[in-house]
Amino acid sequence: MKMSRKIAAAASAGALLLTGGLTAAANAGTTAVPAAVPAVDVQPHPETVVAQNRISVGASADAVKAALAKCQADQLPFVTVALVDRFGTVQALLRGDNAAEHTIEAAQQKAYTAAAFGTPTSELAKRINGNGPSIADLPGTLFLAGGVPLKVNGVSVAGIGVGGAPDGKLDEACATAGAEAIAAKAAGTAK
């Protein structure tokens, strides 16, 4: 029995070497290398290119810091704050001391939900009635209070969300403080 296993193993190894050698030989043939495709330079034009506003890295960092500072001042150090662009990509994330892991996802989902719908998640939560499929079933969204949209000229470009407080109203107050930090920074530079 031991001998047949050794023979089978040797046969497998030989077959593998043979197969590998044939593959290498086939790949070494005279296959034409495709010519490089030149890049196409598309000029910015309203019919072909969409301009996109984003919150800067500095403003994003300031916003999550301000939101977490508000929560800490309210004796809520165990929250996570996330700022995402309107597509849900994280721009900045700050996890407070002792914040549980689930608060990371909650903050991101609240931020994305607010950004995608351009409405605070506390308002969106009121639209959920529990009768069959609804907007609450959309992947990556969370319809609980704590997400605030960030808008430029009335268009949602990002969202800030907080997860982990014992009440969504507390999460929303912290997210609002973060959003206000960006507004204050923009107002200060506009003077």
Could you explain the architecture of this structure?
Strand 1 (80-85) and strand 2 form a beta hairpin. The protein has helices at residues 2-27, 57-73, 102-117, 121-125, 168-190; strands at residues 80-85, 90-95, 147-152, 155-163. Strands 2-1-4-3 form a four-stranded antiparallel β-sheet. The protein starts with a helix and ends with a helix. The longest helix has 26 residues, at 2-27. By secondary structure, the protein is of the alpha+beta class. Helix 2 crosses helix 5. It has one domain: Beta-Lactamase. InterPro entries: GlcG_carb_metab_protein, PduO/GlcC-like, PduO/GlcC-like_sf. This is Heme-binding protein. Residues 1-24 form the signal peptide. Pfam families: HbpS-like (PF03928). Keywords: Signal.
The largest pleated sheet is described as: 4 strands, antiparallel
CATH architecture: 2-Layer Sandwich
Rg calc: 27 Å
CATH fourth-tier homologous superfamily: Haem-degrading domain
| Helix content, binned percent | 40-55%
Q: Indicate the CATH topology.
A: Beta-Lactamase
Question: By helix and strand content, what is the structural category?
Answer: alpha+beta
Q: What is the count of helical runs?
A: 5
CATH class category: Alpha Beta
Strand order of the largest sheet: 2-1-4-3
Overall domain count: 1
* Helix-strand sequence: HHEEHHEEH
How confident overall, as mean pLDDT? 85
Number of strands: 4
What's the shape?
Answer: globular
- Given as residue ranges, the uncertain stretches (5+ residues, pLDDT < 50) are 7-25
* C-alpha termini separation: 88 Å
Protein name: Heme-binding protein
Keywords: Signal
Organism: Arthrobacter oryzae
Signal peptide: 1-24
